[in-house]
């Protein structure tokens, strides 16, 4: 619509200009045929010339005004200024229509920007809430494009704007996280606050406006295992509650029935009790009670770890006791059991009963692992590591833990054996 009105306005102005030019040419031609003097020619043609000048000026103003409006709009677009409002109720009709089109474009772009900003905030909030650490940074300058709280919390880092902040303070962590390429999901061990942390990490490179960025995603595996362990305990307690209630309910019901019969017999001597029924009921209560006791005995270890009885124990004394308990059994199976300590005076603060049970369980696991070896050996060592921790470690020359179950070895009661339960393979004090 605006284009049509502009076209007709332009045609009319060009037509008027042509009329004045034709009139000027006709007047000059008539005057020259009559051979008048110069003054008369000037007097007669001057008004026509004025009209021509006015028409040319009007035509230029008419055309340049539209181009000026369009240039102004494009300039605003260039600098992303979409807040400007063009008047729609003043000026020529085609100008008003042009302004209306400009305003519609601005409103559409503003609406799209708001939607884009809302989506960005929504995505940012989601990434902030997840417990997976994410960071994106410029590979040339090191400037951080975006990082979430989970990333900083996992690595115990404060807010930072450049990855070089980490490089200056923790170069080993910098090389492991930011410099190494991880084309696939990889399990790595990193040192955070003098503690070893196991994380799952992957990275990818992408481009934004010809700038090269790197995206790093990492997941704290230890936290995941802790959550899995917690869920396992909840499931275990749920199973225990269900089984106990299933055993108690029929016992209580049968006891009530037998009690009612006994009381009825006491009140009315003529009311006799069937002794076979009474004997069968008591036998049922006995069997269910024994079943409940066996079930409780199966999980008796649950209440043994509520309090640790810590004491200072010489490692050599601990090893001598374990050797006394296990040596004869292992010799009968031709398995060599070795103990090694780097210091005879090495002492550790432990609950001796629990640690002995753990070591016995691990030795039995090692026996199972190396039973097919022609020269089976089990080695138990104790030493103080570079971090000042006392470490007891058990190793064997058996098959080892399969990769498909290694992530589950710390889950309570996980086992690949029908009647077994998993134990730790590395103890640290």
From TrEMBL:
Q: Which residues form the signal peptide?
A: none
| UniProt cross-references to Gene3D superfamilies, sorted A to Z | Histidine kinase-like ATPase, C-terminal domain (3.30.565.10)
Q: Which is one Pfam family of this protein?
A: HATPase_c
Q: Where are the transmembrane segments?
A: 12-32, 38-60
InterPro entries for the chain:
HATPase_C_sf (IPR036890), HATPase_dom (IPR003594), His_kinase_dom (IPR005467)
* MF term (GO), any: ATP binding
Q: Where is the Histidine kinase domain?
A: 239-429
> Which PROSITE patterns does the record cross-reference, listed alphabetically?
HIS_KIN
Record keywords, A-Z: ATP-binding, Kinase, Membrane, Nucleotide-binding, Transferase, Transmembrane, Transmembrane helix, Two-component regulatory system
The record, for PANTHER family, names:
C4-DICARBOXYLATE TRANSPORT SENSOR PROTEIN DCTB (PTHR43065:SF46), SENSOR HISTIDINE KINASE (PTHR43065)
Query: By what name is this protein known?
Result: ATP-binding protein
Q: Which organism is it from?
A: Snuella lapsa
